[in-house]
């Protein structure tokens, strides 16, 4: 009946967006807008299951790999909009911006052409600027949000400029804007301009994924924005940019061994410093910001392996790792937006006032740290096996060290939770929707950690 | 199936006592005790099975867990692991009985952590899949961290972090080593498997094999601990609740000894033998270093820590000389040394209760004052220094006897260390129990019923192993012969 | 008729690009920063146009139009930000922002 069922998810999102805009201009009721958003997201989530065949257009490609990430992005958008419903009371525009940004992210994941890549990236980021600088009529928080928004905006548009310039140089050399046609090797007759182009693209990758020399805005961004939006940044933007760059790098010229060495050093530095910088922080969201830097460092090692020899195992690693990372991050930010405080000292003795929340937070942090029994451990195992498989010894050692440092600061948070201090009761609504969502996430993480086989075989289909 | 129950009972028991805390504290205590009793009964039943079979593996359980990596839920128990499991269950029971009086805050959480430590230790002993081994090895650290950081004494946070960093380094080295082993096996055979039985026959190149063996050795040496990597133990012991440190000595150290025996000797017999002289030299340094430092300590608990470092040197020598006699000696020594040091740790806790100090300088002249404590202390100290009639003597004697045929010089040097052991333990007895009374604020509390029971059970076990060591030899002889034959092949 | 060597085009656009980067790094006034962003975007748009002409494809010009549109959207958000900045701090100087540290 429908000729191209493959573009259903994204077109449903577009329809939702239009309905939202019309409804907002007539009727500013928070609940109605929220329900429309949720229904739109759910419908496009369900429409993924209708898709059977892969679609290959000049501009977009829809295969199992990109569908998996569409699914992840939609799930995180769903969670983030639910978080922001409980976190804010009057915020009709937030849903619109979230949907807009989600469309951009999905377009980015599907793109195989420079135009879609660029439009997706910009659609995602421009809507995000609005989300980051969403003012709450609270002087202190507003200034923080403004500052982080300006930082993010300037740096992110600078990164897009780098990307554009690099792609322009490559376009000049190869005469094609599609990624799939870059079947070339970097040999002697490549000009200096091509190498500059590739370097510029890698720099913009560094900015967008906040790899270490380009990381400085990330912790500020995490601290300045509202928790639901931080969850959105930490999951959706990271996933989509990483996946799109994967697709780009999969077909980019084999990076020369020199560039590969540079990437190795960068990833080692990212892993080590991302973890070390998190040690002394006292703000939970800043810690999570640094931990996201370190996590992307782990993922970068996969890209280095991919430059040597591409195989299915790498895609599987990325899928599993991003899945566990997304779910865990969503859970932690859900709890933060439920408790609505981000200073670490506030969490002292949480176990004695709210044991269930403390246990859920513990599970999430353990999963981020990669402790057995949780999903994060499976992801770490994949990363380790991947580095071993390609015999990247330095990276292997730095992953080990970084992982132990990481475990240390996550445990610092956990030991804060169980400190025995007398404190006043926290006041928040435990019967809210977010509570059950977070609970289900933590259950899923435990189940994934204990019986990973089913989920692994499910994910292998998508890689 | 019985092994699966054995593995999960402590974890479930821990959850139960955590959840019972809200209802009534007594319930959570009872559930912890009850769990341990079930475990004891089960392990005695396993011992009974072991004596009636001729197989090396008494009971096996194997089912697939993660198919993708060839990871099996592969549990098996043989003589070595059975004796270790029995020991840890007995010690766990004792520490739970002890903690009835001591632990007053967050009781449910304490038992939760204690039982999870026990469960993961049992998991380490039962695991026949290296992934599973690693899994439990990692889990073990975290409850221990919580016990130190929540129920410890002064500076507990820093100490907990120190412990954590050391053990985490050991865990990471172990993880990298095991994964490397598995991947290099995968390159040779084309089969991704973590199973011990199939990795035993792995064709590993000599260079890689030496590296992997060293990785395992370092990782276990941190946990044992051996001389250059030992600095966490004295601090942790000194700042620990008495029952936590009981666990430390008793259990954490044994896992490392077990790992050395099972993984180093089992997987890399050839490389281990070529490394043996160096390992023994490290052991000798450890013996002397620990003994000398133990002599100069003022805190009883630090003294115990250094003495255990010194004793672990003997265990290292015994394991690496790798023949039937010395391996049996090592197991015997681990068991009886663990028991005797556990007893002394309990006594130091009792002394603290009465004198409010761990400092030897403020003690003295206690003999004949504190009821039965000095008597127990004297006999336990004599056991530590290896008096004939205790298990420690049998262990040391067998280790040295077995080693003498192969490395006579090392044996001679290390046996001289026994003199130092005697000196520092007699010095301890002398300073604490004889001489003038220095402490004015002496509270003359007599031992209560359960404390007398605990100490006499420990003494009884030590004497049993001293006078009739055949029981423990019978338990482990089959699997030890198996390991020793494998290494003999490379002499 | 001799054409200008194509390298000159790249050098020109690279110079423009670096002017943009250095302006972005050195200047503290937010309006100038936006101008520098525009310069960077346009320098890459210039390369697109030239290489589209070089290959005889319309793709380069399509990219140019896209870049212009996106730049307009970005700057409009940026100006909204600027108004908020002026409201809160009474200044265009981004150095006045120093709340987030660590």
Relevant terms:
heterotrimer, A: 463 residues, mainly alpha, two-stranded antiparallel ribbon, 2 strands, 1% strand, globular, B: 491 residues, 18 helices
Write up this protein.
The complex is a heterotrimer of chains A (463), B (491) and C (102). The mean pLDDT of chain A is 85. In chain A, helix 3 packs antiparallel against helix 4 (92-110), helix 4 (92-110) runs parallel beside helix 9 (227-251) and helix 5 packs antiparallel against helix 6. Chain A has a two-stranded antiparallel sheet. Helix content of chain A is 75%, strand content 1%. Chain A has 463 residues and is mainly α. Chain B is mainly alpha-helical. Chain B has a domain at 268-491. Chain B is built from 18 helices and two strands. Chain B has a two-stranded antiparallel sheet with strand order 1-2. In chain B, helix 1 (2-20) packs antiparallel against helix 4, helix 3 (79-102) packs parallel to helix 13 and helix 12 packs antiparallel against helix 13 (324-355). The mean pLDDT of chain B is 85. Chain C has 102 residues and is mostly helical. Helix content of chain C is 76%, strand content 0%. Chain C contains three helices and no strands. Chain C has helices at 6-26, 30-55, 59-89. In chain C, helix 2 (30-55) packs antiparallel against helix 3 (59-89). Chain A binds chain C through residues 114-115, 118-119, 122, 126, 129-130, 133, 135, 140, 142-144, 146-150, 153-154, 157-158, 160-161, 164-165, 167-169, 171-172, 175, 177, 193, 196, 219-220, 223-224, 281, 283, 286, and chain C through 6, 10, 13-14, 17, 20-21, 24, 30, 33, 37, 40-41, 43-45, 47-48, 50-52, 54-55, 57, 59-60, 62-63, 66-67, 70, 73-74, 77-78, 81, 84-85, 88, 94, 97, 99-100, 102. Chain A: Its main location: membrane. Chain A: InterPro entries: NADH-Q_OxRdtase_suN/2 (IPR010096), ND/Mrp_TM (IPR001750). Chain A: It is an enzyme of class 7 (translocase). Chain A: It catalyses: a quinone + NADH + 5 H(+)(in) = a quinol + NAD(+) + 4 H(+)(out).
